[in-house]
Every structure is written in C-alpha cells, then in structure tokens.
Amino acid sequence: MEQGRVVPVSRLVDVVWPDDPPASARALVQTYVSSLRKAFARHGFPHVIDRHPPGYRIRLDKAMVDADVFTELVNEGQELARAGDCDQAADLFHKAISLCHGPALSGLDSAPLAAAARRLDELLLIAHSERFEVELSLGRCDHLAELSSLVARHAANERLRGQLMLTLYRLGRQADALACYREGRTALVDELGVEPGRQLQMLHNAILAGDSGLLEKSAHHGARRSTSVIPAQIPPATADFTGRGRERGGLVAALRGGSPGTHVVAGPGGSGKSTLGVWVAQQVADSFPDGQLYADLGGMSDTPATPGEVLAGFLRSLGIDDAYLPESTRERTELFRSLLAGRRTLLLFDDAAGERQLRPLLPGGPGCAVLVTSRGRLAGLAGATLTELDVFTDEEARELLGRIVGDERMADAAAAARLLTACENLPLAIRVAGARLATRRNLPLAVLAERLTDDRKRLDELSAGDLAVRSSIGLSYRRLTEPGKAALRRIGFFGIPEFNAWVVGWLLAVDHAAAEALLELLVDAQLVSFTGVDSTGVLCYRLHALVRIYARERADAEESPDALREAVGRVLTGWRALIDRIAVDAPPAEVVWRRPPPVEFEIPDSLTRRVLADPTGWLHRQELVLTVGVERAGAIGLHQVVGDFVSALTAQELKGANRFEFQSRVVAAALPAAARAGEPYDEALMLFELARLRMSEDRHGEARQHFGEALSTFRTLHDVRGQAAALAGLGIACRDSGHLTEALHFLDQAAALLQALDDAGGIGYVHRVRGSVRLEQGAYPAALVDLELSLRAYERAGSRRGVAYTVRSIGIYHRVCGKYAESLRACERAAEIFDEAGDQLMRSYAVRSHATARLRMGSPDRVCVDLERALSVAKESEDRWGQAMALHVLGQFHRVAGWSDGAEICLDEAMSLWEVMRSSLWRARTEHVLSLVYRDRGDVAAADTAYARACRVFREHNSREHVELQASAAVAGAATVL
Predict the structure, then answer these.
(1) Does residue 628 contact residue 499 with C-beta atoms inside 8 Å?
(2) What distance in Å separates the CA atoms of residue 174 and residue 179, rounded to the nearest whole number?
(3) 334-342 LR contacts (CB < 8 Å, sep 24+)
(4) DSSP labels, 125-185
(5) Rounded to whole angstroms, what are the CA distances from 518 to 514, 565, 633, 793?
(6) Bridge partner residues of 49 (DSSP)
(7) How many CB atoms lie within 10 A of CB 410?
(8) Among 475, 182, 67, 482, which residue's Cα sits nearest to residue 304?
C-alpha cells in the first residue's frame, strides 16, 4: 500500500497488532521482514525490501502490484470515455474489475488499513459504475444481473440505481424500473433521512411519462439540458481537504434534503470555515440542477460587500441584462426572489459580516438552500441552523500536515507534535506552516517547530504568501469597540490560561457587569472561547494561544507599561483579598509572616460566597492560573505585589496531595523578582517561603539554611514577627531531622517573641511543636504542659485545624504514657475534625496513630486495614513522611502477628525513605524494630549489629529511647514512640 515510501516500524507494529502488541513486537517485525526477503529472493527478487530508518521500504515495478494496475486501468478507461471511445473504455473497465476478488484486503482485521481498503472498494464501485455508463451509451443491457446485485448491496448509491432503472426501462420493464425507484427512495429516507437527488427524480419522471428519448443509445439518465446558462459559481474545493467528518456529513445530508433551508458555519478566523463551505457546496451541487451561486461578502474587510452589489452580480448570472437591473436594493431583492421561485438553487455566502448584510440576499422559496460562513454566529437569522467549528482534533491536525508535507517528513513524529502544539491545531496555522515546509524542501520540520515555540517569533513564522495568521486575527480585532480591544489586549498581556469576568473586571478597573458584557462581545467575535462553568458557578473563558500572542503584541504597541503593570497588580491584589477572606474562616495552624495590605480591596459578596463554599477546591482548581499570573507579575517587576500574594497563598494549608510543582513555581517567580528589586523585606519573605517549601518536600537541610538566611535579614530589619516565623521554622526543621536540642533552642526563642506579639495562632503552633520535641526526648510532663497551652491558643485563634493537630499530639502523649483509652479518644476526635475539613491526608495521620494505640493495647483487629489505607493516602498525596511512618508501624504489626518476612519488607522500605529524607533518628527507630525481627528469627549477630547502630543514634540525639535504655537493659521489647 505504501511502496516507494519508508514505512516506520511503529506503523508496521500498529498494522499487525492493532490492539495489544506484544513486548517483542519490534523484534518480531524484523523476523517477519527477514522471512519476506527470503521469500522474494526465492522468486527472483532479492532486493525488494531495504532497511531505511526509521523503518523499511519496498521497491516494486508498479506492473507487479494488482492494486496499482487496477487504478491505472480505471484512470485510462475514464479518459477514453471522456474522449468518446466507449468500446475501448468498456474493455479497460472489464480488465480492471477482473483483478478484484472480493472486498479489498479481505481477511485482514487491521484498523490502520481500513481506510486504504475503503479507498480501493470505492474505486471498484466507481469502475463498475463507469463501465455500466459506457455500456448504456453503446446500447448494451447485458449487465442487468450484475448491476442488480450491486444495487442490492449499495442501496443508497443513486448513480447505480439510475443505471439499473434505465436498463430495466430499455428492456421493456417500465414497472420494474419504477419499483426500483421506490425501493431506492425508501432506502434513502430510512437510512439517511433524505429524498433522492434531482437527477434520479428527473429520470423517474421521464420513465413515468414513457419518454422515448431514454431509449436512445446516447441518452443519459438525467433530464435534458436547458439551452439557458445555469450558473455554477462554486470555487474549486481544496485538494487536501481534511477532517470535519461530523460537520460535513451533517451539512451534506441537510442540504440534500427536501427543504434544505439556511445553514451557518461559524468559527474563529483560520478555523477552515470557507474551506468546509466550498467542499460541502461541491458535494451537493448535483442536488441543485438550477444552479449554484457564490459570493464573497468580505465581512471582515474594511469594505464589506453591500447587498445591492451582490444582488446585481447574481441577477446578471441569472440572465438579467444591465439595462433591466433595478436601482434599489429592495427591488433587486424582489426580482432575485421571483427568479428563484420554484427553482432548486444553492447559494454559498462566504465571510458574512452580519444578519443585516445577509437578509436581502436570502431566497424566498423552500427549494433553495443557503450556506453561509461567518465569524459571527448570526443568531438573528430566524430558522438558520448553526454549525460551529473549533480547532482540529489532534488526529485531524496530523492528517492535514501530513498531506501537505508528505509522509517522509512526518516520520519525525516528535517535531511534528511540537509544531502542531505551537499551532494549537488551528487549520490556518497548520496550512501556513505546511506551506513553508512544502516550499522549502531542505528545511527540517524540527527547525520550524523550534522557531514556533518562541512566542516572539511565532506569528512572524506563520506567514506564507497571502496566508498569515496575524492578519487573520487582526481582521477581527479591528472590528472591536475600543473597550473590547482593551479587554483583549490586557487578557493577552496577562497570559493566564483561563479567566473569568472577575479577572477581566480587575484588569480593566470596571464592574462585573461591564466585564461580562465585554466578554460576550469577544466571544461573539470568535476571539475568546467559552469553556464552561466551574464548580462555583462562574463562567470560564480562554484565549487560543495565537490570539493571546497577537493580543500581547497589541498591548505592547498600544498601551503604556505602567498601565499594564497596574492592571496585573489589581488582579493579584484581588486574588490576595480572596485568600485573606478564606483565612478568616480557616486560620492557618502554623506561624506565618504577613505584611498588611497597602489598601483595602473590595471583593463583591457574590464572589466571596462562591469561593467560601469550597475554598480548598477553588484554590486547587486555580493552581495553573495563579501560577501563570504570579510568573507574569514577577516578570514585569511587581515584586511587592507578588511577595504579598505568595505569602497569603502559601499560608493556606492546601489539603490533599502535596503540590510541590505549584508551590515551587510561585516561589521561583517571586524570589528573583524580589532580588532584582533589591528589597530586603521581600527577599527575606521569599527565602522564608522557599524554606517552607523545602520543609514540605522533606529537604530539611536546605530548609534550615533558608530559614537561617531569612532570620538574619529579619533581625537586621528588626522585624519581630518575621524573626518569630523563621525561628519556628528552624525549630520544626531541626525536630524532623532529629536535632532535638537545637529544635528547643529555636522554639524557645520563637515562643517568647510570639507571647510578646500575643499571636494566638503562632503560640499554638510553637507550643505544639515544642511539645512534640519534648515527647521525643521523654520529657512527658513538660510535653503535656506545652500541648495544653497549644490547645488553648488554637481555640482562642479559632483554628480548627490547629486544634486537630494538637489533639492528635495529645493522643500520642497518652499512648506513650500507657493511657490507651484516652489516646484512642483523642485520635478519634482529631480524625473527625480533619474529616470535616476535607483533609484526608491528615485524617490518615490520626487514623494511623489510633491504629498504633490499638496495637499497643494488644487489640490488632482492623489495624492492618487502617494502616494500609493510611499508606495508600500518603502515596496518593506524595507524602514521603506519612509513607515511612505507616510502613514503620506496619512492620511492627507484622512482627506481632508473627510474619517476620512481611515485617522486614515494610521496615526496609521505611528505612530507605528515612535515608532519602535524612531523618537519622527515625531511621534508627525503624532499625531498632528491625533488630527485634532479627532476634525473633534467631539471627543474633544481625540483631546485635542493628541494635548497636540504633543505640548510637539515640545517644547522639539524646532521644527518649536513650533515656529509657539507660534505665533498663531489657529494652528489646519496649515500644517505640510514633
């Protein structure tokens, strides 16, 4: 099927194994090709297949391939038929058909070959039809049986049915010919919902009237031609027309119906409206024997065609002399409609400006059809059917590019994918890029793809001859009102992937209603796409990437940098105000450093209510938008606005999965912006945020470094709150890496500063962390004092999450003290609060603590199930600390249950995670449990080695285990703190 062209190995794999290729598919292809080469060599063709990366190529004389011989015979037969040599043509059609034995490629159940098989089957059907046509012109009717069989298999093929009707009529079987028509009409109506075409109807009427002209050898099964000129103005269809299968199928079926009506094809500039309109008109032209009229209305040009001008051209085409053309548009419309009354004519209007331009051009009779292409949806045309075009699907885009540049260049699949991504599957952009490649045969596809990835050059590259994406978008832009242009410019300049009316209102400093009206204007102009309604009920929109690039160009050219910076700053300030409002109802459970907003920013109650209905969900859904917004603001020098926004954002505890990429991108945008501005406050703030990010990633060493850098700057600036936040961060970073004495050193300083500031939330956080450190050290009474202080402070601050954190820590305190009932109650309460907050990750922490207490009590029922579920949640959330803790306790459970192998597997995996996180104290605790597993097996040497390593780390960190080991030599059975 593809001789002379390189067929990639991947395509051969797809053909041989369409659904489930084996792992060795590529090796099997090599084996099969080797077998084929040997088979050809045995028959005297040793060099038929050659290796040509990335696949193979077959080289054959066309005379050796029956499909090629068949195609050439059909083409030669058609040429002879057009030249009038019907005898010779019939002979060639016979020879072509004799080469076919059943359906093409029969027996091969391969979806990738289905299209090629359909093409050959269609060509065979054409060969049959052409043969019957020339035989009828020669007066022959000996093909009746064969023709009847074909019509039975292809009931909707009107050409074959017409030939059968004419054959029957010439054989004196008028009744059978009429019955054949009725059967065909029933099949068309039932299967396609359309009436027979005009030519078949005319043949039926002629047979019904007993027209003797049909008995003549040269009679065609259509009606006799009129001596008047019938307009046929539809332009030629694009040779490489691709895609739009659903749209073109629907339009063809509708236009061939009995009352075709008016159809509008709408879409953004470059979406292929005109191409589709012309292709459809060409397909249905035979259903409109009274002519086809065409007009380019120039709706997007500076001088759109007037209805009077278009009508004058149509009337001339219909035979009206200039001397008789009416003067007024109204009179021309009346004459035009009178001429079309009772006729079946197709009118194609390309690039309509609007309903007012189009209404005078519409015919009055039901038999005529109107097909209109327009960037507007023309909702004011009563009764019109709308077909909307978007960009191509990925498959359609690849097919179009392949048809333009050829299969060989498409072999670089990665470059083709990059190019199509840069074009965002816009047909015009693909066609322009393809044209550039087609006219520059030596230009690698990868080179153009690389050029298109640069936003600054993309529109320059997407220009070839009279095709240019920039000018296409510019036609729509120039027709906007000034406020509409400003809205598009600022949306494009901001560059966020999705937006709503609130964002547009902030960009333009207008109210919500005005912003909504402007967005509707941009949607009507096909410059903005409506993407749907988010979960808060807000309408969402987006810009096509190429429109965004154009809009940004216009913003840079037409607006001042200060005005653009102010616009972006308003959006980030609005977002910060929303996040601050969330914090009122859900204050954070840790110490945060915040600068008060410079001005009060009003947020409408309607927006606040929507966001507060699901604040965490809103933040999660907005991650990409917020990230791009922060990066854009940082790039244009809004360092203070960015710093304030990032601080507000990261203070919110995003429940669920760790979103490191999101946090990394916003901090990465803010930190260099602050550094470039040379503002110590902002730089210290971003170092603090970077340290918090490293903590969440379990990179404790880096976190300590950045907290220390931030602390130094805060001290230089005498910023007490900043110092407290950095000290608290250092405390928890030291705790998690096992440096317990250092942790207390920093936490004591933070507690003193926060008491002076009377920061209830901060006090709750520091005392909770300090209490957990004292638990680690075995200082239980002091730990309880800290935890109780923390609980009261969190309750005063109204932080439910803080309360849940502390209650869970109190549950751990009760467990290590042997008060299991109290521990279970505390863990259950913490789990309930986290569940109410929708935080499944922290709920899993509380559930794990609850399961651990039950394990200590000797009640292991459902412990394994709860621990496995906690492990699963931690994995889904990408929380390594939670995974390691769950594995640590699972190892203990399996040891108690007597499954030493399962215990060892879990404990080894936990130790690997502790090593990655550089948490030596917790690694030692896990290794201590592992030493007990070894001892249970009787492997005393391994047990002693592991035990000694663990004890050395306990001593270095002065942990509670070291205290207990000193107090008792029988520590082997002691429980470890979780």
Answers:
(1) no
(2) 9
(3) 336/311, 336/361, 336/363, 337/363, 337/364, 337/365, 339/315, 340/290, 340/364, 340/365, 340/368, 341/365, 342/367
(4) HHHHHHHHHHHHHTT--TTHHHHHHHHHH-TT-HHHHHHHHHHHHHTT-HHHHHHHHHHHH
(5) 6, 21, 23, 49
(6) 58
(7) 18
(8) 475
Two tokens, residue 123:
């060509």
Two tokens, residue 759: 């920061």
Task: Give the pair of three-digit tokens for residue 94.
Answer: 């016979």
Q: What is the mean pLDDT of residues 511-522?
A: 93
Long-range contacts of 96-102 (CB under 8 A, 24+ apart): 96/69, 96/70, 96/127, 97/124, 97/127, 97/128, 97/131, 99/66, 99/69, 99/70, 99/73, 100/70, 100/124
Q: Tokens 């913003």 correspond to what residue?
A: 555
Instruction: Verify cis geometry, omega within 30 degrees of 0, for the bond prior to 54.
Output: yes
- Residue-wise pLDDT for 597-654, tens only, equals 555 677 777 777 887 777 777 777 888 888 889 889 888 988 888 888 877 776 665 4
Instruction: Return d(Cα 182, Cα 186) in angstroms, integer.
Output: 6
How far, rounded to the nearest angstrom, does the alpha carbon of residue 828 sit from its chain's CA centroid?
A: 41
The token pair that represents 104 in the structure block:
């093409």
Other Cβ atoms closer than 10 A to 2:
12
d(CA 535, CA 610): 9
675-710: b (≥16 Cβ within 10 Å) or e:
eebebebbbbbbbbbbbbbbbbbbbbeebbbbbbbb
Residue 541 bridge partners (DSSP):
499, 530
- Buried/exposed 113-149: b ≥16 CB within 10 Å, e otherwise: beeebeebbebbbebbbbbbbbbbbeeebebeeebee
Q: Of 605, 607, 612, which is closest to residue 586 (Cα–Cα)?
A: 612
Which residue shows structure tokens 């249905």? Answer: 284
Tens digits of residue pLDDT in 896-948? 888 989 899 999 999 999 998 888 889 999 999 999 999 998 999 999 999 99
Query: How far apart (Å, rounded) are the C-alpha atoms in residues 225 and 213?
Result: 13
Q: Are 628 and 495 in contact (CB under 8 A)?
A: yes
Contact of 682 with 674, CB cutoff 8 Å:
yes
Pairing of strands 529-533, 539-542: antiparallel
Torsion angle (degrees, nearest 10) of CA 171, 172, 174, 175: -100
CA dihedral defined by 752, 757, 762, 764, rounded to 10 degrees? Answer: 70
Terminal-to-terminal C-alpha distance of the chain: 67
Residue count of the chain, please give it: 978
807 neighbors 791 (Cβ within 8 angstroms) = yes
> Given pLDDT bands bounded at 50, 70 and 90, which one contains residue 106?
confident
Q: DSSP of 325-367, one letter per residue?
A: --SSHHHHHHHHHHHHTT---EEEEES---HHHHGGG---STT
Write the DSSP symbol of residue 22.
-
Torsion angle of alpha carbons 589, 595, 596, 601, nearest 10°? -90
Which DSSP letter does residue 228 get?
S
* pTM for this model (two decimals): 0.60
Q: Which of 919, 910, 956, 911 has the alpha carbon at shortest distance from 733?
A: 919
Sign of the Cα pseudo-torsion (890, 893, 898, 904, in order)? positive
- 840-892 pLDDT, tens digit per residue, is 889 999 999 999 999 888 877 788 999 999 999 988 888 889 999 999 999 99
pLDDT at 591 (0 to 100): 59
In terms of pLDDT, which residue wins out, 22 or 209?
22
Rounded distance between C-alpha atoms, residue 428 and residue 880, angstroms = 48
Q: Are 632 and 495 in contact (CB under 8 A)?
A: yes
